[in-house]
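Need tokens for this chain, all 186 residues.
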Amino acid sequence: SRQLLDQVAEFEKSEFTSSNKKPSSDLAKPKLAPLNEGGSELLNKTVACLQEENEKLKARLKTIETQATAALDEKSKLEKSLKELQVIQGDQKTNENQDITELENKVATLKCQLEKTLNDATENQKFMEEDLVTTKHDLLKVQDQLSTAQKELEKKFQQTAAYRNMKEILTKKNEQIKDLRKKLSK
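Here are the structure tokens for all 186 residues:
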């Protein structure tokens, strides 16, 4: 499952780097006013929300890992202290054994709690990542449909009589300007 998470992370990095490069080329192209941005805007908001929640889960996971590491460090320190006390106080073995048992029980309980929390966080993160990927695919579909609609609208506009007439007028005017320039240069 770690490999899958790494693959998803690489996919997201490639998506974000490619999406960061696209807007600069999009700014140079003239675009028609969008017909309906409701779906695209909703998808963008959903993606942002999912990314924010994913970051929160990652931060929570790091906090839990830090707590687990601290608990394990504390356990090893306590075990070391306990062993030193056993050497010094050989006649109190029964009390020390009880303390060790209590510590082991506490550590086992902490481990169970940590594993449960990690499993819950991992499942939630997987769900969020799958939802994020689905939302990205939906966003790409909507963007593709919007692009297709814009191209069709532009094509229809170019086929109108008004567009052809304006194009003919511009062509004639350009030729007249060329002729006038030639006459002026002579």
